From TrEMBL:
Domain of life: Eukaryota
Keywords: Golgi apparatus, Lipid-binding, Membrane
Family annotation (Pfam families): GPP34
Family the UniProt entry places it in: Belongs to the GOLPH3/VPS74 family.
Any single GO BP term: Golgi organization
Protein name as catalogued: Golgi phosphoprotein 3
Residues annotated as transmembrane: none
A GO cellular component entry from the record: Golgi membrane
Species assigned in the record: Seriola lalandi dorsalis
Composition skew (Polar residues), residue ranges: 1-11
Feature: compositional bias, Basic and acidic residues: 14-29
Stretches for region Disordered: 1-52
């Protein structure tokens, strides 16, 4: 009887140790995946620029739209406001904070699917964190089109006006001032004074313009899914914000024509089809669909 008890006790002990070992392995695996995801995000953020001059999609689009000497965007540009809100959604998606809800068996269209908060970890950017907080706390969830309108303040519902992100261009310009790209000045426009942000670091602006130009000229791959996701998003969102033309203005006529022709091939893509391809960022294509519908 004693030996049977000992054998049973040994068996239970070995099972317990095996369970503990499996649990430990699983925990190590999980930690490894988290570390890898974190490293991936850091690598993405470190690409190309140093930490001091790393720009978000919103800052890049604004920088393309700003007049270098005058320090403000064109008064005739009525697209950049909503374009910058689209940039926020895509930036949050590329950083792993947002995603679209599952499309389901009947496969809903991109514009009818809701935006879901995947992670509420702070991004370190005040505007992005503010937008993320709104999206996380809103129930039921809203679509991409709705969020662009809500964050822009373009809603007729007075109960939803608190979602509007105010002074976005000014706040982004101040970010660029802190990063040493712009400076701050006061300009007199006859009836009023206006704060402007002329360019001080032309190297960073030139690097940004060259990145856009090279993506459709020297580094053109003729397949959007082989392009860097951030660069692809920058081109599409800069066009939606009506500032892409500024990046191609310095080009020779033949290069300009070739670059614009290739941009148009990207603009003619069908977001629904592109989002269904492997490794596609669905939320980015939903934002594109919202601007091209």
């Amino acid at each position: 009887m004693t030996s049977l008890t000992q054998r049973t006790s040994g068996l239970v002990q070995r099972r317990t140790e095996a369970i503990r070992s499996a649990a430990a392995d699983k925990e190590r695996e999980s930690d490894g995946e988290e570390d890898e995801a974190r490293r991936g995000e850091e690598e993405d953020e470190d690409k190309g620029d140093s930490k001091e001059t790393r720009l978000t999609l919103m800052e890049e689009v604004l920088l393309l739209g700003l007049k270098d000497r005058e320090g403000y965007t064109s008064f005739w540009n009525d697209c950049i406001s909503s374009g910058l809100r689209g940039c926020m959604l895509v930036e949050l998606a590329l950083r792993g904070r947002l995603q679209l809800e599952a499309c389901g068996v009947r496969r809903k269209s991109l514009l009818s699917r809701k935006v879901i908060c995947k992670s509420d970890a702070p991004t370190g950017d005040v505007l992005l964190d503010e937008a993320l907080k709104h999206i996380k706390e809103t129930q039921p969830p809203e679509t991409v089109q709705s969020w662009i309108e809500l964050l822009s303040g373009e809603t007729w519902n007075p109960l939803k006006l608190h979602y509007q992100l105010r002074n976005v261009r000014e706040r982004l310009a101040k970010n660029l001032v802190e990063k040493g790209v712009l400076t701050t000045e006061k300009q007199n426009f006859l009836l009023f004074d206006m704060t402007t942000h002329p360019l001080t670091n032309s190297t960073i602006k030139q690097r940004l313009v060259k990145k856009v130009q090279d993506s459709v000229l020297e580094k053109w791959v003729n397949d959007p899914h082989r392009m860097d996701k951030r660069v692809l998003a920058l081109i599409l969102l800069a066009h939606s914000s009506d500032v892409l033309e500024n990046a191609f203005a310095p080009l020779q006529d033949d290069q300009y024509d070739l670059g614009m022709k290739r941009v148009h091939t990207l603009l003619e893509l069908e977001p629904e089809k592109e989002s269904a391809k492997p490794n596609a960022n669905e939320l980015m294509w939903a934002v594109v669909a919202a601007f091209t519908k």
